[in-house]
Amino acid sequence: LLSRRQRQMCIRDSAYRDLLNTDHTISQIALDNGFCSSRGFSGEFQKRYGVLPSEMRKQINEKGQKNAID
Q1: What phi and psi values does residue 40 have, to the nearest 5 degrees?
Q2: CB neighbours of residue 48 within 10 Å
Q3: 3-state class of 2 per DSSP?
Q4: Distance (Å, rounded) from C-alpha 43 to C-alpha 20?
């Protein structure tokens, strides 16, 4: 059995993958990954990765556009 902390880490990793690999809204990703709100998800995401999910998605999109140009 996984501890509560291990479950939280799995959820966060899953949410990170969803942010990278889907075009779902941040609110939808939060709900899909067991968070009650996008606000709670954003706070936890920032603690773990040092950046808000919206900022991470912006960085991902900018890199994708840059790669598409190259």
Answers
A1: -65, -40
A2: 14
A3: coil
A4: 18
pLDDT higher for 51 or 5? Answer: 51
Find all residues with CB under 8 Å of 27, minimum gap 6, and list them.
37, 38
- Beta carbons within 8 Å of 60's beta carbon, 6+ residues apart: 19, 20
Determine the angle formed by the axes of helices 38-49 and 53-69, rounding to 10 degrees: 70
Query: Quick one: three-class SS letters along 8-69?
Result: HHHHHHHHHHHHHHCCCCHHHHHHHCCCCCHHHHHHHHHHHHCCCHHHHHHHHHHHHHHHHH
Per residue in 38-51, pLDDT tens? 898 898 888 888 99
